[in-house]
Please model this.
Amino acid sequence: MILHQILRLSSIFRSAVSVHLRRNIGLSAIAFNKAKELDPVQRLFLDKIREYNTKSKQTGGPVDAGAEFQKDLNESLARLQRAYGEGDLTKFPEFKFEGELTILLNF
Model:
């Protein structure tokens, strides 16, 4: 009887330690990966994204876009405004839900 209880407690202790070790190993793996130097391809990719972000902030729009791109953009916007009506097509629309949907969301 005592031997059975000791084995049962040993089993519970082993499973608790196992869970604890798995969590710690998982967290240490994440910390190790963050401390590790980036792969050269990853570093190049991130550098190019940062470079594009800086250039797009300086130009205020797409990078290395010429006059032809701006002409095509204006023609497309004019065509869309004729098809779908007035409004600023360069901004994301704001949605206002009224009626049954607000009643459903209150529940």
Observations:
- The mean pLDDT is 75.
- The first helix runs from residue 2 to 35.
